[in-house]
Structure formats: structure tokens, C-alpha cells
Specification:
Order of helices and strands: HHEEEEEEEEEEEEEEEEEEEEEHE
Number of domains: 1
Oligomer: single chain
Structural class: mainly beta
Number of helices: 3
Distance between the termini: 29 Å
Helix content: under 10%
Length: 469
């Protein structure tokens, strides 16, 4: 199971299986290798202590110095993460743990100020993963071309055009994102035009999502599936705030609706987001989204919203306290020929609805209470409490990626309460290049999950190290 995907991830619930022992020899080797990597990496890179304030990140570019021409840039990343899940499928003894490695190499060529070419190669592997998931593009995709694009237009020019395989990231990535937390992440084959003015910009794009396929030499975009959009940004219309209106159009060929009719999909998403940080100790982030269209002849009528309010305190630990509420509509009747479930398109799903990653935006009402703390300049702690409910008792519980996680009983659920979750996360930027982190999430099933699964609690934990070069 890809236990946690950001920027960012795709969650995959494996079939239930009987309890197993304390782990195989291969799993032990993965754990041992991960611990050795995490503990020895600062020494291996010669950066074991805390960096000086004037430290400059060491990159391939700076390492080659004068040998590298000014029009050429090189950089990369190596990341290792160990994940462990206990209680998969809410079943006691259904546990799994494995390693995830990802290596990236990025090359940039800028022959003139208004022309840029970018290439990014990526190698993603999952040592110790069980065979059932070895061919999942969410966790594994050996040596592939992740990005390859040409961009016309200088950074301060009134317009720029970017063509090719590229990452698309808009807003806070709840609808369109490149989930970096994922071991493979998401990109699009796209054409994007950006028009810029004073405090404003507008993106016009047409894209097709690329499917990560570990068995294909070069990944391809999904045939017949497209996303077209307008995404705007207006700064300081409201002092200290940014407003983001957008309109998205998703199309797919050969889909099936809830009445088992075949046809095409046309889904329109109209939304408005507002967020701000320059409000003294306060910050906020809110959005309202509506969806309509047709799926194989059935009408789409769905909507969603979220709101977060944060408050930073100038005191020891530099705490930021926040409260967040989100809603995504569900389908009230699976036989009425009207699709009411909100679909979050191509999001960055990691951590938006809990670190355990058991719940998605669709058919979901959720409350989150959290605090961010900085005991030291090089240590950040995050503590969160989540409470989840179904928006419609007649619809399923969905994963962050939009798949059915727990189906409702015939006639609908008796109780909408999904469960509660507590999370604890730490991150340590050891140097400007090297960082460590880890987290623990524990989900306690509520009446809905207990009634429709074995009802055992789920626990997810991870440790990671990341080195940028």
C-alpha cells in the first residue's frame, strides 16, 4: 500500500490478508538500510553539524564551479522513506512495511534570457514491497523521463508559454497538484500560457495527465482524458490577501455512470479561493467550489468548500494554532441518475485529511484542530486532531485518491461518524541540503467503519531522509 502520498500521494488499500509474523528477512534488511541511511547521511555528506547562517547549499552547479557554463544548471535529489501500516483494511494483524527510494536529476538550459529548456529524470523504487503492489505506478517507476519542456518568456515578461511534460500546481493543490510526497508524483503533457500584470496573473492551459507505468520504458499520457482550465490570481484586492478564481473542464471518453450506461464525461469545476498571511498574527485559507456537467448522460451536481483560520503567537515555541473545516458532497441516491459526489480531479492529497490518509474530500465532512511548534530553530513539530463524518449516509467513504475505501450497506449507513485521528509529525532541516523527518498517525474507527469493516484501529508511521544536490 502506498501508505501516504503529498506532494503529496495515491493511497492504495490492499486486499485483506491473514496475520503474519514479525516480518521477513527482506523487510529487516530494508529497515536496517533505512536506519543506516538516516543515521549516517550527515556524516557521509560531511555535513553532520548544524549549518552556519551564511551557509550556501551545495549543488551540482556549485560543485562544478567555473567548469559549468552560466546557461546550464544541474541539480538533483535522493530521498529514502520507510513506511509502516498496522491494521490495513481495519483488520487486526494486517500489517505492512517497506522502503521507498526516489532519485531525481534535473538539467536546465537557458541559452538566452527568454528561452528555457528543462529535463528531469526520475528513478522510483520500493525495496521490500510485496508482489501485489510491485507493479503499482504509485510507488514504483524505474528510470523514466518525468519532465521535458520548453518555456518561452523571461520571468518578468508580460507573458510566457510552456510546452511539454511538466508539473501543474495551482492554489493549495487540492484540485491540481504534483504530489511531491508520492514516490512517483504526477505530471501532465501540457501547453500553458501565463499572462502577467501588476499584482495579477492568468493561466490558460490544456493538459493530459501522465500515467506512471513501471512496466513501460517511457510513461505516456492517458488517451482520451484531458483537463482544460483558466486559473487567475489577484493580489491585494483585499489588503494582505490573494484571490484565485478558476474554471476547469475535465473530459474523458468511455466512462460508465451509476446506472451502468456508457458514454463520455464532461465535468466543469468553478471555484474561488481566498487566502492571506499579512493580517498580523492571523492567517486564513478558504474556498468554495461547484461542479456540474454530465457523465454518460447523467447530470453532475456537486459542490465543496473548506475554511481554515490560524493564529501565531509570539512566545516560546513560536506556536501557530489553527482550526480547519472541509466539506465535499456525496451522492444521495445511487439510482436516481444524478451524480452528486464531489471529485477532486488531480490533487495533492497527502496530509490534507489526516496523516493516516484514510479519508478523501469526496463525501466527507471533517474538522481539524492543530498546532505547529518550533522548540528549536532546526526542529518543527506538528500536532493534529481530526474528526470525520460522511456527508451522505447513502454514499461510500473514499480514499484521498477518490477510490471507494469503505462501501455503505444496502439502504445506507445508520451512523455517519467515520472516526477520529491523532497525528504527530517532526521535521529537521539538518543542513540546507539534508533533512530528516518522521510521523505517527493513529485512526480510531467510528460507528460507520466498525459496522462495515472488521473495525480495528489503523496506525501509520514513517521516517524519511532527503538530500538535495
Amino acid at each position: 500500500m502506498a501508505l501516504c502520498q503529498a506532494s503529496q500521494q495515491v493511497s492504495i488499500d490492499p486486499p485483506r490478508r491473514p496475520p503474519r509474523g514479525n516480518g521477513s528477512a527482506s523487510l529487516k534488511r530494508v529497515v536496517l538500510a533505512g536506519l543506516i541511511w538516516i543515521l549516517s547521511a550527515p556524516v557521509a555528506f560531511g555535513q553532520g553539524g548544524a549549518p552556519k547562517r551564511d551557509e550556501t547549499p551545495v549543488t551540482l552547479q556549485s560543485g562544478l564551479g567555473d567548469e559549468l557554463p552560466s546557461w546550464l544548471s544541474l541539480s538533483g535529489e535522493f530521498r529514502f522513506r520507510f513506511e509502516n501500516g498496522q491494521g490495513l483494511g481495519y483488520s487486526e494483524g494486517s500489517d505492512d512495511g517497506y522502503g521507498l527510494t526516489r532519485t531525481r536529476l534535473e538539467v536546465g538550459v537557458r541559452p538566452v534570457s527568454w528561452l528555457n529548456f528543462g529535463i528531469q529524470a526520475q528513478d522510483s523504487r520500493a525495496p521490500g514491497i510485496r508482489p501485489a503492489l510491485a507493479n503499482s505506478g504509485a510507488v514504483r517507476d524505474p528510470i523514466d523521463l518525468r519532465q521535458a519542456y520548453a518555456e518561452i518568456g523571461a520571468s518578468r515578461s508580460p507573458a510566457s508559454l510552456k510546452v511539454g511534460r511538466q508539473a501543474l500546481i495551482y492554489g493549495d493543490s487540492r484540485l491540481i497538484g504534483a504530489p511531491n510526497w508520492s514516490n512517483t508524483s504526477r505530471v501532465f503533457d501540457a501547453v500553458r500560457l501565463q499572462v502577467r500584470g501588476s499584482g495579477a496573473k492568468l493561466d490558460l492551459f490544456s493538459a493530459s495527465v501522465v500515467r506512471n507505468d513501471p512496466n513501460r520504458r517511457l510513461n505516456r499520457s492517458v488517451e482520451g482524458e484531458y483537463l482544460h482550465g483558466l486559473y487567475g490570481s489577484l493580489e491585494n484586492v483585499i489588503p494582505g490577501s490573494t484571490l484565485e478564481p478558476y474554471l476547469l473542464w475535465q473530459t474523458k471518453s468511455s466512462v460508465v455512470n451509476e446506472l451502468n450506461a456508457h458514454g463520455d464525461l464532461d465535468r466543469y469545476t468553478l471555484g474561488f479561493r481566498a487566502w492571506g498571511k499579512g493580517l498580523g498574527p492571523w492567517d486564513y485559507n478558504a474556498a468554495l467550489v461547484r461542479q456540474w456537467g454530465q457523465v454518460a448522460g447523467s447530470d453532475i451536481q456537486a459542490w465543496a468548500y473548506y475554511a481554515e483560520l490560524g493564529y501565531s503567537i509570539e512566545a516560546r515555541l513560536n506556536p501557530r494554532l489553527y482550526i480547519h473545516y472541509n466539506f465535499g458532497s456525496g451522492d444521495k441516491d445511487s439510482q436516481d441518475g444524478r451524480f452528486g459526489g464531489f471529485v477532486n480531479l488531480y490533487p495533492t492529497t497527502a496530509f490534507l485529511y489526516g496523516r493516516a490518509n484514510r479519508v478523501g474530500w469526496r463525501n466527507h465532512k471533517g474538522l481539524r484542530l492543530g498546532s505547529e511548534l518550533k522548540p528549536y530553530s532546526k526542529l518543527t513539530l506538528l500536532l493534529e486532531f481530526h474528526s470525520f463524518w460522511l456527508a451522505s449516509k447513502n454514499d461510500a467513504l473514499y480514499s484521498p485518491g477518490g477510490r471507494v475505501s469503505v462501501a455503505p450497506p444496502s439502504g445506507g449507513a445508520r451512523d455517519a461518524k467515520v472516526g477520529n485521528e491523532v497525528d504527530a509529525v517532526f521535521t529537521v532541516p539538518v543542513t540546507s541540503n539534508f533533512s530528516l523527518g518522521g510521523g505517527l498517525a493513529h485512526m480510531l474507527p467510528g460507528p460507520f467503519v466498525k459496522a462495515n469493516t472488521p473495525g480495528h484501529p489503523f496506525t501509520y508511521s514513517y521516517l524519511f531522509s532527503s538530500y538535495r544536490f
